[in-house]
Write a structure and sequence with these properties.
CATH class of one domain: Alpha Beta
Structural class: mainly alpha
Number of strands: 3
Radius of gyration: 31 Å
CATH topology of one domain: 50s Ribosomal Protein L17, Chain: A
Number of helices: 7
Largest sheet: 3 strands, antiparallel
């Protein structure tokens, strides 16, 4: 029976798994996004998010705790210096998984794991979104709006308008090379 077996071991020993997650977490903190398999990304998300939460309180104790997981001075200083001020007001959910398809060699499900507050294209897309209004099925229109709506529809390239503008029927040009004999 598999009661309470929650952790994904990723087919590795305990020491190998810890070292791999530590290295991937350092890469994520330094580069702000990494490309990996979906299974590893899900495990790494549960590994990194408590460390980011711990970095909100900049104390010697929290730095030592984070260093015991990461084992990289540059990554720890990057986490406390640059990442923690940006995520200070966020209550959780510091990472995002974007699925990218399958890997060609072994058909593994691939994804991009990134820090949410550091993707500038997603931030600009959210800022550019405007509030959309809902369209109703039946709207009551006043006579003035109906005539304006129908008048704007007739301003296209209809033959009625062309005849009215020119004063006579429309003469179509013959294709080049024909008609001149």
């Amino acid at each position: 029976m598999r009661h309470q077996r929650v952790i994904n071991h990723l087919g590795r020993t305990s020491s190998h798994r810890k070292a791999m997650l530590s290295n991937m977490a350092v890469s994520l903190i330094i580069h702000k996004r990494i490309r990996t398999t979906t299974a590893k990304a899900k495990v790494l998300k549960t590994y990194v998010e408590p460390l980011i939460t711990k970095s909100k309180e900049d104390s010697t104790h929290s730095r030592r705790v984070v260093f015991s997981y990461l084992k990289d001075k540059e990554a720890v200083s990057e986490l406390f210096r640059e990442i923690s001020p940006k995520i200070a007001d966020r209550p959780g959910g510091y990472t995002r998984i974007l699925k990218t398809g399958n890997r060609i060699g072994d058909n593994a499900d691939m994804c991009i794991l990134e820090l949410v507050d550091f993707n500038e294209t997603m931030k600009s897309a959210e800022a550019a979104k405007q509030k959309t209004s809902r369209r109703r099925r039946s709207q009551k229109k006043s006579p003035a709006t109906e005539s304006a709506a129908f008048g704007s529809a007739k301003t296209g390239t209809s033959k009625v308008k062309k005849i009215a503008k020119t004063g006579g029927p429309i003469k179509e040009k013959a294709p080049e090379g024909e008609g001149k004999e």
